[in-house]
Each structure stands twice: as C-alpha cells, then as structure tokens.
From TrEMBL:
Domain Tyrosine specific protein phosphatases: 109-167
Superkingdom as given in the UniProt entry: Eukaryota
Location relative to the cell: Cytoplasm
EC number(s) from the headed UniProt entry: 3.1.3.16, 3.1.3.48
Positions in coiled-coil regions: none
Any one GO biological process: negative regulation of MAPK cascade
Organism: Patagioenas fasciata monilis
Enzyme class: hydrolase
Primary localization: cytoplasm
This protein's name: Dual specificity protein phosphatase
Positions of region (Disordered): 1-22
GO function term, MF aspect, one: protein tyrosine phosphatase activity
C-alpha cells in the first residue's frame, strides 16, 4: 500500500457522507485478511456456485464429475486460460470475461453481465456453475461478490463473509474500489 492513497469515504471516488455504514477500503482489506488461506482448487461458495482456478477449469472430467453445466471464465483470452465453446463443447454453457488482474482494470463493466449469467445458470434446474480465473481469488471472486450483491442484495461485507466461509479470496485493491462503489450504488438505489 503506498502512502499517498486515500482511504475511506473521503477517497478519490468522492462518495462523501452518502456511504453511511459502508466500510472503508482499509476495513474491507482487513476483513479479507482474516482466516487462513485455502489451498483448494475449487470450493462451493453458494449453492451450486463454485469458485475455482484454472486447474479445475481445464479438467473437463472433473467438471463432468462435479456436474458443472456453466462456466464463467474471468480470465478469458489471457495466455494461460483456455475456454470457450471449442474447448467445452455443447455440454457446458460458456461466458468469457476478458479481465486482467490489475488494480487499474475496470472490472465493474462486467458486474451486471456476469451476475446475469450466474443468475440465469442458477435458475436452470439441475445446473451448476464454475466461476474461475487463474487462481480463483481476485477476478472471479470479484464477479461472485458482485453477483451476491446484485441478485441477493447482500452488502459487500456480508457477501465477503459469505464467500470466505468456504474459500479464501483476495480481490486486488482496484477491484475492491469498484465493489465498494457498487455497494454505494445499490444502497442508494434501494433507498429511492
């Protein structure tokens, strides 16, 4: 963390006092640093919603054994990430998000489309979805958190706690800013 970065409600987002009880970035990072890092390739973090890494995503036999019917790849198009309809065939519905795990990358542009894909998958009888990126802790975790916030109306802190009950996650600082802004937007919309 560089010394010049502003934290909390008075940060560069200019959200000011409208944030109410929304925690600062520092408080969110402290929450994320609790618990012990998991070393699983994949974990079920919500009923029929799995958060995982490339090892799981690239093993079609494991996906078949898990009953996965949908894959959201949050690292689509990156060097190490296979995916797409050519890779999975007709048995798995695929959605690729070309996100880069950089604090400067605007992952928020994919929050609603990813949440819609996850929601549609989980409303399909018998469906299971794997959301993954390279390691399964930053890009994919951010999209799962956004889904829980958008579709299940969980505040960011509750979404993090829900996922952390099953898997250690660590979205980068830029993604946390976008998630915090989403939290503010959703709360303001709810208050209208």
């Amino acid at each position: 963390m560089s010394g010049g970065e502003a934290l909390g409600p008075q940060g560069p987002e200019g959200t000011g006092s409208r944030t109410g009880d929304i925690p600062s970035l520092k408080e969110i990072e402290q929450l994320l640093n609790t618990g012990r890092p998991s070393c699983n390739h994949v974990d079920e973090v919500w009923p029929n919603l799995f958060l995982g890494d490339l090892v799981t995503a690239h093993n079609r036999f494991v996906l078949w054994k898990m009953g996965v019917t949908h894959v959201l790849n949050a690292a689509h198009g990156t060097v190490y990430s296979h995916g797409g309809h050519d890779f999975y065939g007709a048995t798995i519905e695929y959605y690729g998000v070309p996100a880069h795990d950089l604090p400067s990358f605007d992952i928020s542009q994919f929050f609603f489309s990813a949440a819609q894909f996850i929601h549609k998958a989980l409303n399909t009888p018998g469906a299971k979805i794997l959301v993954h990126c390279a390691v399964g802790v930053s890009r994919s975790a951010s999209l799962v958190l956004a889904y829980l916030m958008i579709n299940h109306h969980l505040p960011l802190v509750e979404a993090i706690k829900t996922v952390k009950e099953h898997r250690w996650i660590s979205p980068n600082r830029g993604f946390l800013k976008h998630l915090r802004n989403l939290d503010v937007q959703l709360r303001q919309k709810k208050d209208c």
